[in-house]
Structure formats: structure tokens, C-alpha cells
Q: What sequence folds into this?
């Protein structure tokens, strides 16, 4: 199997993130309508944001921003908000982790907060992904040199997106299955 470039890894992960967000939205909608959401999909989505995106995906993008600062400072300054976006997403996700844990323990007074914080997460990620793909991705692909990509490549080999692993981690099994079912229904 051919190794993917760091940029291809990010592009693939953005596809996984968008698929996860789509499944998460379906179950937040059900939750807000007092229907029966799949709590494993909700929990798996939140865990994916917290355990993978905040700890691996975003730090990899931040490392690319660091290289961009060295290679093309003016382009990097145009992308300076990236790190603040990542911090904001981590804050939103952490709040959602705490709210979800409380709702799982039957804290009824936080049910409205789960829907509200879930909607915030969906909105913030949609905006963030669109911004990265329109601004950050072109800046790094247009300005980083082959030696920059060689320098950063080992960092991208460290982590494997849990939605692309085999076997799938149990925390993400329901989410993985839902994503597969959604993709199959689109064909």
C-alpha cells in the first residue's frame, strides 16, 4: 500500500470528519425531538472529536502552520486564526464531553444543553472545515517545499484515524457502522 502524503491524510480525515458530523447531526436532531437517538453514535462522535481531532488531527495542522510561518510568513499570518479555531473547538468539545457524561447519568436539567452544545459543535466544525479547505490547505500546498513535506511526514505516520483503522475501536463501532450505512444509501 502506497503511503499517503500528509496533505492527502488531512483531506481524507476531513472526509471522515464530515461523515461523522452528518451522523452526529441525525442523532442530535432525534435527541432534540425527544425521539430515540443512538447514544453510542453520539458518544462515539464526541469521543472522536476529543480523543482524535483535538489530540492528533489539529496538532498536525498546527505543525504545518509552524512550517508555513518559517517558509512563507505573510501566508502564515493570513492563516493565524487556525490555532485559535483549534482551541475554540477543543473548548466546545470538552464542554460537550462533560454535558454528555451528565446526560448519560440521567441529569435531565442538562438535556437542553446537550442539544445546544451539539449544535454549536456542528456549526463550528462546518465553519472550520470550510475555512481550512478554502484558506489553509491552499496556503500550505502552494508554499511548502518538498523538504518541508519530508520534514513533517514522520509526524503524520504516528497516528491512524480511528475511523479508518481495522479493526475499529469499540468506542467508534456504532459510528463507523452508521457512516457506512449512510454512504451505502447515497450510492
A:
Amino acid at each position: 500500500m502506497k503511503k499517503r502524503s500528509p496533505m492527502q491524510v488531512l483531506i481524507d480525515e476531513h472526509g471522515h470528519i464530515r461523515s461523522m458530523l452528518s451522523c452526529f447531526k441525525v442523532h442530535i436532531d432525534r435527541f432534540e425531538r425527544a425521539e430515540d437517538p443512538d447514544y453510542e453514535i453520539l458518544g462515539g462522535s464526541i469521543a472522536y472529536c476529543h480523543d482524535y481531532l483535538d489530540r492528533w488531527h489539529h496538532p498536525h495542522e498546527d505543525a504545518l502552520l509552524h512550517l508555513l510561518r518559517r517558509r512563507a510568513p505573510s501566508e502564515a499570518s493570513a492563516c493565524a486564526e487556525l490555532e485559535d479555531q483549534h482551541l475554540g473547538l477543543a473548548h466546545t468539545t470538552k464542554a460537550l464531553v462533560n454535558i454528555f457524561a451528565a446526560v448519560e447519568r440521567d441529569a435531565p436539567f442538562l438535556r437542553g444543553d446537550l442539544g445546544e452544545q451539539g449544535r454549536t459543535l456542528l456549526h463550528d466544525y462546518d465553519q472550520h472545515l470550510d475555512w481550512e479547505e478554502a484558506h489553509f490547505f491552499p496556503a500550505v500546498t502552494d508554499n511548502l517545499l518538498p523538504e518541508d513535506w519530508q520534514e513533517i511526514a514522520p509526524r503524520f505516520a504516528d497516528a491512524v484515524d480511528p475511523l479508518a483503522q481495522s479493526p475499529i475501536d469499540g468506542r467508534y463501532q456504532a459510528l463507523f457502522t452508521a457512516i457506512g450505512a449512510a454512504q451505502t444509501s447515497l450510492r
Notes: The first helix runs from residue 6 to 32. The chain has one domain: 6-186.
